[in-house]
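Materials and Methods. Structural model of MnhB subunit of Na+/H+ antiporter superfamily-like protein. The 256-residue sequence of MnhB subunit of Na+/H+ antiporter superfamily-like protein from Streptomyces himastatinicus ATCC 53653 was retrieved and submitted for structure prediction as follows.
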Amino acid sequence: MTARGRLWLFLVGAAAFAMVFVTACFSLPPFGSVHHPYGERAVRAALSHHTANVIASVNFDLRALDTLGEETILFAAVLGTVVLLRQTADEQRTRPEPAVVRPRVRWFALAMLPFAMLIGLYVIAHGQISPGGGFQGGVVTATALHLLYLAADYRALERVRPVPLYEIGDAAGEAAYVVTGLGALLAGSAFLANVLPLGTFATLSSGGTVILLNAAVGIEVTSGIVVLLARFLDQAVEIGHADDGNDHGNDGKERV
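The predicted structure was written out as tokens:
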């Protein structure tokens, strides 16, 4: 397609989107309205399913199918990154030299790492009770692990971050979400319907399938973020073109 053709295609698509967007905006309730029927119904549904966190109820119960789409977007992004950034025949891997880290940075990062990991896992586990959940806790847990990169160097991070296991975890989290939905079908209900016992309100066992779906997302997001960062860091620190020679060893030297 020519540049002129692409421009016309964009303009037609943009005009169609603008028309739909403006029409939707005029159909919205007036600003400042105190009547929000969806919010009232969402709160009522969350309480009826013993889910104290209404946001978690919306994500993993009322609109669990939408959340599957969001999780799949991250899964596809991770898969695409792994494919595009894999080491090719004309590239070589150079081990990074040990980084020079200031003692204050080292000790602070090492001290914060277990706390950050614990907070991330807490946010995932308590997603159906308090603000948070698998998405937020997964990002915190994955990035907390990389405090070791700041506290020591890339080689230390590699020793505690087996990327193949996280790749399996990424696929397992995605599969667990789908399997939970299929389990609802086997139970005679709709896909991703909340069919498990609801438990006691405001406890870790409350919410029915919200617990499982939230945990599946936490596993997928944690593993996916770790794999993403691993592939990008590999490109930045270790992998370079084979014809770079000794220059790559200097350019690819890890610094903190």
